Amino acid sequence: SANNSMLTPPGNEDGIDFIATIKFSNTAHYLFGINGPLRIIGQCKKYNTPVPYEKVKDFSATIVNVQHKTEKIRKILPNWFLQSKGPIIGWFIGHSGFQQGAKDRAKDFGIILSDTYDIGELISTSRKYYSNLTFDKRHEKIKPDIHQILTG
Hints:
With 152 residues, this protein is of the alpha/beta class.
């Protein structure tokens, strides 16, 4: 889970909707050499159609601006993010998926893509929700909540 997170305010935040850091466990020996938390820059689009190539292209430019700490980006990002020294990962969440060109662009730039069902699955596997239940029971309990979020 994220040790720091932030939703950006509505408006033009250079394509950034959420920001987070995830600290690695000291026992994660396979991540040897990473000198800081994983830093995540995210964007969400609740389109009724798959996200087009141009939106992922714009987001990949945002990631480059974050990596270079441009003046505009420094005004958006919190100090806990700017002062961290871990790798920067882009995560784009598209409600209805992504066009093939968008998927190709994301793959070329190392951007994680998720649709709403991916996020629902992620939530249903989290032990933070209904932690007293088994996975199957937790999934069934969360399913109506997720449906409400998607349709509400």
